[in-house]
User: Fold this.
Amino acid sequence: MPGKAAARDLLASTLPLMKAPPVNLGIICRWLGIEVYAKPCDTFGAMFARYGDKKFLLANDRLAQGRFRFSIAHELGHFLLNHKPITHIDEERSLQQERQADAFAGELLLPEQLLRGDCLTNTPKELARLYKVSRQALSIRMQELGL
Assistant:
């Protein structure tokens, strides 16, 4: 799936720059030249935008930590997979694009090379806390990897 391959490529470049887990989304966004703004919002979890040459990621900081991080990673997926930008808040993407962005986010936040080793010494609850993801995201990723 293109989302997972794009996340693995990004991790190959950025994981050496951080102490993970958890994957540091701030380092990744800076590496990509994306400014991140976290503010309360009632209409979306996160949204990627461009203004001229500038790239912005707007994120709803009212979300729980795991959902907040997944929303940012999901939007990075849309950006790196070259999905057409949304121009209105009520505009929807195709189911295929949403699945690709979800796969990207899961791979980015829960890298297989780290998760396999950490599964040997941590409970699912500890893993969710360690990777700063929701238990739902962790469960889906562990099922994908057969863990």
